Structure formats: C-alpha cells, structure tokens
Amino acid sequence: MTAPREHFSSRLGFILAAAGSAVGIGNLVGFPVNAAKNGGGAFLLVYAIFVFLICLPVMMAEMAIGRKTQKEPVGAYKALNNGGNGWNIAGLLGVLTPFMIAVFYMVLTVWIFGYIVITLGGGLDYLAGPVAFGEFINSPWIFAAMIIVAAIVYFILVAGVKEGIEKAAKTLMPTLFVMLVLMVIFVLTRENAMAGLRFFIIPDFDKITPSVINGALSQAFFSLSLGMGILITYGSYISNKTDIVGSAKLVAITDTAVAFTAGLMILPAVFSFNPDVNPQELSDSSVSLIFTFLPKIFLALQTSLGYVAASGIAAFFFILVFFAAITSLVSIIEVPVSYLVTEKCHSRKKALRILMMTAGVLTLFASVSFGMVSFFTEFTSYAGGTRSFFDVVYDVFYDTILPLNGLLLCLFVSYRWKKHNLSEELATGNDGYKGSLSEKYINFSLSTFIPVILLGIFLNTVAVKFF
Ligand code: PHE
What is the ipTM of this complex? Predict the structure, then answer.
C-alpha cells in the first residue's frame, strides 16, 4: 500500500513553491545581463510577450496533466495515453531532463555556497582577484561545499511536500523578496546608479535580431521552469479547488517581476560601485558574471564604505542568489523523487537516498570537469571543440532537450489527450473558464504556433550547438 499523495496545504503554498522553482539564478543574473546587452526595454517587451503568449499556455498544460493524473511525468503520460506506449519517451525525458539539469545546477549552487563562506571569512578581495574562480572550482573545498548543499536539499525534500517544499518556499521566498527590495533601494540610492538604470531600460529596437528573439524565448522558457517536468509534478500536488489558470498567471508575473527587479539591482550596481567599468565587460554568461565580475564590483565599494561593509553587501547578495537556487534545486530533484515513489514504490527516504547518491556522483564528475580530472575535462568533442562533461550536460539537456520536451507536451495535450479534456481540467476550480477568450487562445496556441516555434528553437539549437 502506498501512502496517499501529499498535497500543498493551500493555493498560496502552491504558488510560492512554483514561484520558488521559477525564480532562480536565471532571473537574478541571466535576465538582467541578457536584457542590458540585447536592447534593454525592447528586450523586456519581447520577453514579456513570450512569457504571456507562449510560455503561459505551456505552463498551464503542464499543471493540468499533473493534477488530472496526480502523477509525475512518466506516470502522467502513461495514464493519459490509455495504456499505450507511444508517449513513454516523453514521460521518460520529463524525468531524465530534470535529473541531469539538477546535476548542472547543483554545481553552480555549490559554487555560490562557497562564495558566501569565502566572503564572510574576509576573502572578498581574493574573490575579486584574477585567479580565484579557477582556483576555487578546482579545490577540494568544493567537495565539502557539495556535501553541505546536498544535505540542505535532502532535509528539505525528506520532510515531504507540505512540511518540506512548501515550508521552505514560504520562508525563503518572502525573505528573498525583502532582500531583493533592500538591495535595490541600496543600489538605486548610490551615485551614478541612474546610468546603469538607463543602460538596463532604454529600449533599442535595432538590437532585436532573430538570435536575440530566440535567446529571449529560451530564457523565458527556462526561467519559468518549463520542459523539466517540475510543473507536472507540482500540479499533481494540488487539489481540484485550485484555479490553475489564475495560479499560473501569478507564478509568471512573480517570475518576470523578480527578473525585472534584479535588473534594477545588477546594472545600477555595476555602474555605480565601479564607475570606470566598461559595460561591454558584462559577460555573456551568467556564470562568469556572478563568479568573476560581480566580486570586483562589490570590492569597489570599499573605497566609500570600507572593506567590511563591502564584504557584508557581497555576502548578502550571494545569500540572496543561494536562496533562489535552493528552491529551484529542490523543485527539480522532486521530479525524479516523485517518480521513484509513485512508479517504483520506494519510500520517500529511499528514493532520496538513491537520487542523492546517483546525482551526487554525476555532480562530482561535472565538478571535476574544469581541469581537475582530464577524462571529464576533455570528455568529448563536437562542433570543432573539446567539451567537458559539464558542457555536455549543459548543451544536451539544458539547451536542447528543454524545447523538445515543451514541443512533445503541446502535441500530446492537443492531439492525444485532446483539447476538450484540457479545457475540462482548466475549468475545474475556475468557473468562468469555459467559453472564455483564455480558453480559446490556450487551445488554439498549444495546437498550432507554439509547437511550431518550439520545433524551430529545437532544430536551430541542434544546428548551432552540434554541427
Ligand atoms: N527557473 C530557474 C532559473 O531561472 C531555473 C531552474 C529551475 C533550474 C529549476 C533548475 C531547476 O534559474
């Protein structure tokens, strides 16, 4: 006998947990940099259109099949396919993808944790130096940090949906909002902050090229945690009273608002703390931005505030990012946990132990991909370059499979499960849904242009990344 499926205790708990998943490193650093470099307000506009017109229907469809079946991706696809096997691959990808993305995300979270400790220990000047990042990620300390991060995730998840995931989100998310707002107020009241604000917001429509458009959509898709089975799984933890349409809108608004607010913090900070900075130095990747560029920016504060205050503010920032990362990490590991519990009938504890062990080993491989072990550093090669194990996980699962999962979901929901069933599910808990404009738009978009766009992104990524 398996235990009855746990549920979030309230709609708010569900929304906070889903928002906790969505708000992550992508919002806090990925979005501001992308926006600043790619047209400012113009990028924001394109991004917001994508969030609401393309991502939101996909998000609702994920939540709907989760709630309908009360299962994670493997179980959900199987249940709605009436015993057929044709869609099993979509379900399997829906569990394998989050597992592999968890490996890559875990590495980043471990580094952030390390940065908090080093900053609090007085090492901000070291982190701002040229060798710190390379040295730190290849030092044995990351193994200690890995154990601590894994333990935090384990303790949240082992406590279950209500007592673990929901409680963590209810504590961490409001704390994160308050920290973010405090940081924005602090930054915007510094001298020269307005230059950064202008750099972030003033629209430049000339920069909106096809590749920027593609990037904006991928960013939005990732930021909302789509294609990772997370919202299917979280959807399976809500009751029929919860209005999916309204909840999904709130999650999308929260996620976008946090991304925008993060821009109000990062860009003005860059300009104001270190006025000599050349904005072109803003790196393309959020990884080098957080780990090599921002420590320099924070260190520059010491001239006006002193070293201790500069370190305190840097630590505050890294803690903020860490909270965002933990709630995302928890959500992504919950998918394979739920799979092992529902489909393989393991206890939650045992499922977590199996996962922590396997994901731990893979995270270890990914962590030593930066020079420590040459087998993983020079793991393979494609598109004319050597790729590490970390690169492969990132390129295959994060960049390529995500849009594919989205595509499969749209096709499954529209043509296998059928639109009228989706409507039925979305109308549960939302009396006005049937016959509304939302219903027409969701059914139409999911069965026509959204899959076409996702297919385009998938093919384009394969062509660009691997050939
Ligand atoms: N949405 C998260 C972000 O923006 C991405 C993410 C979610 C990654 C869940 C892993 C797990 O950073």
Answer: 0.95
